[in-house]
Amino acid sequence: MTVRTFTLPDLGEGLTEAELVTWLVRVGDTVAVDQPIAEVETAKSAVEVPCPFAGTVHRLHGDAGQTLDVGAPLISVDTGDRAGTPAPAGGGPKGGQSYREEERAGADPAAGASPGDDDGGSGSVLIGYGTPGGATGGRRRRPKRSAATAVTAAPAVTAAPASATVASAATAAAHDAMASAPRLAPTVVSPIVRKLAKDRGLDIATVRGSGPGGLILRRDVEAAAAPAAPDGAAAGAPAGDAAALSPAAPAPEGPAVDARTGLRVAGRVPVSGVRRVIAQAMTRSRAEIPEATVWVDVDATRLLELRAELKAQDPERAPGLMALIARFVLAGLARYPELATRLETREDGSQEIVRFDGVNLGFAAQTDRGLVVPSIRDAHTLSARGLDAELKRLTALARAGKASPAELSGSTFTLNNYGVFGTDGAAAIINHPEVAILGVGRIIDRPWVVDGQLAVRKLTQLSLAFDHRVCDGGAAGGFLRMVADAVENPVSVLADL
Asked: Which of 97, 156, 204, 374 could form a disulfide with 394 if both were Cys (CB 3.0 to 4.6 A apart)?
């Protein structure tokens, strides 16, 4: 047979790793060309990875929740070409067993062995090497035994009619001898067993395996994690004697207590996937960018009136408020382009400001996976209606987890509408490596002076966070004032409707 390995492809510009969310196939399944085999999450997006080969799934390289580097092995497929070179010994689970089937077979050596397995090997791929039972060609080797193992094993066989206590002692001595011998890695097949050991705080290298060749099984991990029984009870002593010779068994441990607060720990949530990406981006932004924030209260009454008029004229094509504000932002960036640049550090340590011919407008979108920033490419070329269509399309893709990495990257300026959460204002964190972000608060009724008279108007707050390395207060204030004026008098800016 011919086994071909497919590596994790480059899923987008600048991405170096991906988190394996779930497998869509199992070992032994038949796959077709371009059939999705796994769902991975990276750059704040979940995507399905298709397989370029057709055949039988030979091996899955990785577990759900594991982070894989781009270029690392993802899946091995037996393409069925037996005219090719033979597969190496120990090339994979026999009969296309899944990891769960391997675990069940390993728990009962008689069930896991086939008639042709005279050496008792499971045929499963181990860490760094294979077992003899899995070889279909090439030289087969038996695992070497230490002298202590050989000497101790013989009495264990001849003493079969003897008491179970003697046999148990001999078996324990044999395992001790095997554990003392040097080896490359713990002999364990199933990722289920590894996860079980990790969850129970065990070092898998310290667990003695009871399977063929010292294979570590689920029962071995459970036994190692269980509290030790009193010696008297293990030897079959009466319950009264055991209680007299040893202290009472400790009570089951309750929830862990945090040493700092004294409170019980209710649970631990790993920082992974989207949350890890957000944490890394926000940490880098705060660490590298000396930001400043300016804000202004704006009378949005005329903007809401214009929106109502457009909706009355054409309900299907009327742009939303975010699209209208986005159009004002793009007009402001045309006059103050330094707010849509990027600061780069060269190899010699010097820095330069990179300017762009146009704007890719990012906007913050809250999803079930976390906060993401889809990017409207060449937003400066779109009308308010065109921006509205892109806002709706990208938001739907992001919330469904179907936006591509390209659609979630590449922005040069970000617009954040935190008013949808009922907040008036915020000092937003700049979306690195951009140099500015504009936030929009909620629109509410407030008293406002109009033509010298107190009136109730629709007010909102605009806040601009900017990188003080590339922009001064004059440019930042000028941009913010221009956007505010457009909100208060929108007709002058919307000539493209």
From this structure: 374
